[in-house]
Write a structure and sequence with these properties.
Radius of gyration: 18 Å
Helix content: 40-55%
Order of helices and strands: HEHEEHHHEEH
Protein name: CBS domain-containing protein
Keywords: CBS domain
Pfam families: CBS
Organism: Flavobacterium gillisiae
Strand order of the largest sheet: 1-2-3
CATH topology: CBS-domain
Bound molecules: nicotinamide-adenine-dinucleotide
InterPro entries: CBS_dom, CBS_dom_sf, CBSX3_CBS_dom, Diverse_CBS-Domain
Strand content: 15-25%
Length: 144
């Protein structure tokens, strides 16, 4: 299964923010949209990503105030992204080895979607279930 196929199922919606808003405002948006990360997109270009982890480690543990800190001060600028043609295994490798939970999907350097660890795990489980169903029908001689 490819990233494109995951996006076809879950949609291309991307919740993004500007780097000039406060971290508090960004957290409010994350809460409102019920997501664990937001992309920082300016002039159609992906500038960074801000996650709940950034908040925990760069604000709470550093004794900073989210209302006095701007997104550009703590956002992660080293973005680990994928292409629509990348496959599930590649996504899982990145999530595991780079320790990220959200992968922006880029096509010609523009953001066309986002896949999270939850999306990838859900797709892997679906694929495994299909394989089991096929094997089951093969063994028991019924059509899947
Ligand atoms: N049943 C499902 O379809 C499904 C899919 C993904 C996650 N989940 C569950 O949600 C919980 C948290 O998921 P998570 O750790 O993957 O992270 P998450 O809460 O950030 O992601 C949840 C969903 O929101 C989407 N999302 C995240 N950030 C986004 C953004 N900036 N713009 C647009 N969409 C965005 C993700 O792609 C994912 O589909 C887990 O309990 C997981 O099992 C369920």
């Amino acid at each position: 299964m490819t990233v494109n196929e995951i996006l076809n199922k879950k949609g291309n919606e991307v919740h993004s923010i500007l780097s000039t808003i406060t971290v508090y405002e960004a957290l409010r948006i994350m809460g409102e949209k019920n997501v664990g990360a937001v992309l920082v997109i300016e002039d159609d270009n992906l500038k960074g990503i801000l996650s709940e982890r950034d908040y925990a480690r760069k604000i709470v543990l550093k004794d900073k105030a989210s209302k006095d800190t701007f997104v550009h001060e703590i956002m992660d600028k080293e973005i680990v992204s994928v292409k629509p043609t990348d496959d599930l295994d590649y996504c899982m490798d990145l999530i595991t080895n780079k320790r990220v939970r959200h992968l922006p999907v880029l096509l010609d350097e523009k953001v066309i979607g986002i896949v999270s660890i939850g999306d990838v795990v859900k797709s892997i489980i679906e694929l495994q279930k299909n394989t089991i169903d096929h094997l089951d029908s093969y063994i028991h001689g019924t059509k899947a």
